Amino acid sequence: MAKLGIAHVPEGRGTFAELTVMENLRLGGYTRHGSIRGDIDRVRAYFPWIDERADQQAGTLSGGEQQMLALARAFMQRPRLLLLDEPSLGLAPLVVSEIFRIVKELNEEGMTVLVVEQNANIALQAADEAYVLEVGKVVLSGPSAELREHESVRKSYLGY
Amino acid sequence: MVLLLAAACVALVIGSLVSDQFAEQTVAGLATGGIFGSLALALVLIYRATEVINFAQGQMAMFTTYIAWQLMQWGIGYWGAFVLTLGIAFAGGVALLAFALGAVFVRDWTFERMGIKQAGGGVIAVVIVTIGMLILLEGAAAWIWSPEIKSFPSAFPTRPIRVGGVAFSIQDLGTIGVALGSVVVLWVFFQFTKVGLAMRAAALRPFAARLVGVRVNAMLALGWGLAAVLGAIAGLMIAPTIFLQPTMMDTILIYAFAAAVLGGIESPAGAVVGGLALGVVLNLLGTYVHFVTSELRLPVALGMLLIVLLIKPTGLFGHRVVRKV
């Protein structure tokens, strides 16, 4: 999976809690050949806090930081497709919008991102295409701008 | 904990400066302790990788030492045989894991065919397989090479070296050097190389490790291989003093278990320190406390183990593990 260029950030993040932040990043680059220093520098540019926490155990980070670390680790894989499962789970609204801002940025740089998210509002803002699932079936799909205007989506998920 | 260790080290150094005999016995204790330590480290490696206590560890070491002896009988020089044996030990460790996993797989498959449903038991089944391997290897060694005691050459000269009136055996110093050297090499490997890091990741979080592309089973096999190599080193180092025989590692392995549990079964550093401490304490007790004869060494070791477990059940270096159920 990882070798095919698919990075997956599972619900609960899949962080190596016992290892340090830097070791988590090094593991992200595991399938890559050659130097990963350049990518580590780029990750640092996205998440400046990583610099001072590089040797801290990942398990001692806050929930938001762990989610960002999981994103950073997935980024280290240089994936063609990034799968995110409930990235907003258990995080403060401010952190959630920060994470989606970065996801959007990665997306604009050409990475395909598939997000499963129960926070419809923020998901529809970030995504280009959206699908609404109901009991395992796709009941609605289309450009997210259109879906945002859709009568039943507004009522059931956005609350206005 | 660190303070206590530092105090113990200071006491040993002062004692060694005051008394020549104390210095000699301390170094000799460190040498046997180094062997306990490397075997204990092998147990910890396997435990961390697969949560299995490998009861065959001692017999694996014994068997590989016999292989080294055989190679030397065929006219290969000591160091050539040493390196070859380590290679063979590595392959053997990998094969043993494959064998154990294979045995469990065949059992599950047969049970399924017979329509018997049973839940889990994977780890305990592998532990039982290692006990089977223990008996098998001991029998095989006696069968191939006869159970007679054989002498085994030492890598280091047996003559003593004098430092300020104290006679140290070069063999002891060499053993300490090799044991500590292999520990340092392992530490560097786990800390700074990509594969070492992947091995730790695979042992800690197999699922997450798979997600980043680590081949978990290959890493576990590598862990077993490295443990076998450590065991082989321990066997090669101790064989000159206790001689080569199929049962040579039986008691050593019990000391190694004691050392591993003493240090905390999950802690590599603990295993090494536990081994060294056990070696030194046993040797000093044997020298200065007269009723502790060589027959009483094992009970004393197990007594130490009991006391540590009563005071600190997780071992000297272990910390409590909280598992979510």
Helix proportion of residues of chain B, in percent?
A: over 70%
Helix-strand string of chain A = EHHHHEHEHEEHH
Structural class of chain A: alpha/beta
Task: Give the number of helices of chain A.
Answer: 8
Overall geometry of chain B comes to globular
The N- to C-terminal Cα distance of chain B equals 31 Å
Question: How do the strands of the widest beta sheet of chain A line up side by side?
Answer: 1-2-3
Describe the fold and architecture.
The complex is a heterodimer of chains A (160) and B (325). Chain A is an alpha/beta fold and 160 residues long. Chain A has a single domain, classed as 3-Layer(aba) Sandwich (Rossmann fold). Chain A is built from 8 helices and 5 strands. Chain A is elongated and about 50 Å long. The model of chain A has no long low-confidence stretch (mean pLDDT 79). By secondary structure, chain B is mainly α. Chain B has one domain. In chain B, 75% of the residues lie in helices and 2% in strands. In chain B, α2 runs antiparallel to α11. Chain B is globular and about 70 Å long. Chain B starts with a helix and ends in a 14-residue tail after the last helix. The model of chain B has no long low-confidence stretch (mean pLDDT 81). The chains are: A alpha/beta (160), B mainly alpha (325). At the A-B interface, α1 of A face α7 and α8 of B.
Which characteristics define this entry?
heterodimer, A: two-stranded antiparallel sheet, 8 helices, 5 strands, 46% helix, B: mainly alpha, two-stranded antiparallel sheet, 12 helices
Q: What secondary-structure arrangement, pairings included, does this model have?
A:
The complex is a heterodimer of chains A (160) and B (325).
Chain A: E1 6-9, H1 21-28, H2 37-46, H3 50-53, H4 63-76, E2 81-85, H5 93-108, E3 112-116, H6 120-126, E4 129-134, E5 137-143, H7 144-149, H8 151-158
Parallel strand pairs in A: 1-2, 2-3
Antiparallel strand pairs in A: 4-5
Helix pairs in contact in A: 1-4, 4-5
Chain B: H1 2-18, H2 20-50, H3 57-73, H4 78-114, H5 122-145, E1 160-163, E2 166-169, H6 170-192, H7 194-204, H8 206-211, H9 216-242, H10 250-263, H11 268-288, H12 297-311
Antiparallel strand pairs in B: 1-2
Helix pairs in contact in B: 1-2, 2-6, 2-9, 2-10, 2-11, 3-4, 3-5, 3-9, 4-5, 4-9, 6-7, 6-9, 7-9, 10-11, 10-12
